[in-house]
Write a structure and sequence with these properties.
By secondary structure, the protein is an all-beta fold. The protein is built from no helices and 16 strands. The chain folds into two domains: 44 residues, no CATH class; 110 residues, CalX-beta domain (Immunoglobulin-like), CATH 2.60.40.2030. The strands form five sheets. Strands 7-16-12-9-10 form a five-stranded mixed sheet, with no helix packed on it. 19% of the residues are buried.
Length: 169
């Protein structure tokens, strides 16, 4: 390859094929299916069709609810789901973080890994939420990251996260 020629870069993100030239701009080339790769050595041109399977997308829902009286614990159960079943084991890390609710005071901080065996599409994450005598509406987040054999769903360019809303009494 001539060093003066820009390199064509390919990436597959979720269910879309994207291209760019040496990181300058990325073009969206539609749904994943068959990708034709062409190698031009200057002496010959070789093309190969490569079939690319669609990768599952990981999503997490939002949960809201009221808590019990002071001294009690309620569970908020979040659903982590795959858009399609996978033939491979899929995993994603998760952790809680504060919004207006504070860990240890309003809810119990939680971290872990959700594992999906081939064919599974749903896993659950429970977060303990503490009851109080007076409770203005508060929120916390369940963040998902570091997926393996899947992509995290994006909304407006940002990865999804679960919102836990502790409703006012």
């Amino acid at each position: 390859m001539d060093a003066r020629q820009p390199r064509q870069l390919w990436s597959i993100r979720s269910d879309r094929v994207q291209t760019g030239i040496d990181g300058i701009g990325v073009g969206d080339h539609g749904a994943v299916g068959t990708l034709t790769l062409t190698l031009n050595t200057g002496c010959s041109i070789t093309s190969r069709d490569v079939t690319v399977d669609r990768q599952p997308e990981i999503n997490i829902n939002n949960v809201s609810g009221k808590t019990g009286p002071k001294g009690t614990t309620s569970q908020f159960t979040f659903t982590i789901s795959l858009s399609i079943p996978s033939t491979e084991t899929v995993s994603v890390e998760y952790y809680t973080s504060n919004s207006t609710a504070i860990a240890s005071r309003d809810y119990q901080s939680t971290t872990g890994t959700a594992f999906f065996q081939p064919g599974e599409t749903t896993k659950y994450v429970s977060v303990n939420v503490y009851g109080t005598s007076t409770n203005p509406q508060k929120g916390f987040l369940v963040n998902i990251y570091d997926p393996v054999n899947a992509a995290i769903k994006r909304v407006y360019g940002y990865p999804v996260r679960g919102n836990g809303i502790i409703l006012a009494k």
